[in-house]
Design brief:
By secondary structure, this protein is an alpha/beta fold. It contains 9 helices and 19 strands.
Length: 361
């Protein structure tokens, strides 16, 4: 099959033919229809988060099931599916207590003594996040995918697999925003816009979107922002406090920077919660004022929106088909696999919401 492979950090992906194994007992072979180009991929491609090369990036995908192992029960051949990087075992303390996204069990991966799922020239090729979606096919564990309605367009369904479930889930699951509460979202890329949309669905009374790119701020208003702040124009924290008369109850940092994570905490009102969705580089420490904790302010991480994706993704599909979730506007451009390196360069500029690779099988 054709895939985009990272052979060495800081180098462009190479489009090449690689081998893919047959499904094991609990594995699913998926023909990829579409995959979003996410900033998380870039963190591993540029070496910010180390991962052994060679590997196939890509994790925000949708496709059609081609084959299943003899012990697979969740999906069947012909099903339309969305994948999720937070695969779960179903047995560990996190899974049995309802926190599927926290699962780190190795049971969804092949063991060291087993044949690799992907290979090239006799050597293993790794799958980023156990998926490796920048390819014509994926071979994954059954508990990293979920079947969805067949009337859902697969290019939009792909976005649900990461950006949408992460942003929406951070609002509704991690921070549990309630109707009427105030929200600020820092960074209006795919995940930030999904957080804005999630806040609107949750009934937030005021939703403040913050970014440096005017076109993204306009898009945030389409997704439900009641107020926008251009981060180029003065003190963001002071503006949020002024707009809300004391700060927000929930803030969401969707960039992954030290400065914006600290801003997310500082713009809280007493009793507020800052949620860090962005991937802050390893070794970076945050500086917070100790006195703020006297006001019962909290700061916490959000891993893939604390999702329970077998439940969440079909519901998000329903929201889209009911006209309650605007996914069409989230796609900035559709490209072929050969355009992936240009899309990754665009991610560094941060001008677009989402590029989606579409396969014409």
């Amino acid at each position: 099959m054709k895939a985009a492979v990272l052979r060495q950090a800081h180098q462009p992906l190479v489009i090449e033919q690689i081998g893919i194994d047959k499904p094991g007992p609990r594995e699913v072979l998926i023909r990829v229809a579409a995959v979003g180009v996410c900033h998380s991929d870039l963190h591993f491609i540029d070496g910010t988060y180390p991962f052994p090369a060679p590997f196939v990036p890509g994790h925000e995908a949708a496709g059609i099931v081609e084959q299943v192992g003899d012990q697979v029960h969740n999906v069947k051949v012909g099903d339309h599916v969305v994948t999720c990087l937070s695969g779960f075992c179903g047995y560990c303390e996190h899974c049995v207590s309802g926190f599927l996204s926290r699962c780190i069990s190795p049971l969804t991966r092949r063991g060291a003594g087993e044949a690799p799922r992907l290979h090239a020239n006799g050597a293993p090729v790794q799958q980023l996040a156990g998926l490796g979606a920048f390819a014509e096919q994926m071979l994954v564990h059954e508990q990293t995918c979920v079947a969805i309605r067949k009337d859902m367009p697969l290019d939009r369904a792909a976005l649900i697999g990461c950006a949408v479930v992460t942003g929406y889930g951070a609002v509704t699951r991690t921070s549990q925003v309630r109707p009427g509460e105030t929200v600020a979202v820092i960074g209006c890329g795919g995940i930030g816009l999904s957080a804005v949309a999630g806040a609107q669905l949750a009934g937030a009374g005021r939703i403040i979107a913050i970014d440096r790119v005017p076109s993204k701020l306009k898009l945030a208003q389409v997704f439900g922002a009641t107020d926008v702040i251009d981060a180029n124009e003065g003190d963001v924290v002071a503006k949020v406090i002024e707009l809300t008369g004391g700060g927000v109850q929930h803030s969401f940092e969707a960039i992954g920077l030290k400065a914006t994570a600290e801003q997310a905490f500082r713009m809280l009102r007493r009793g507020g919660t800052a949620n860090i969705i962005g991937m802050i580089p390893p070794g970076v420490n945050l500086e917070l004022q100790g006195r703020d904790f006297l006001g019962e302010k909290r700061i916490q991480g959000s891993m893939m929106g604390s999702n329970r994706f077998p439940l969440d993704m079909p519901r998000l599909v329903d929201f889209y088909l009911q006209g309650r979730l605007r996914l069409d506007d989230l796609i900035s451009q559709r490209i072929t696999l050969e355009g992936v390196n240009d899309a990754l360069e665009e991610l560094k500029r941060g001008e677009l919401a989402r590029s989606v690779i579409v396969f014409d099988h």
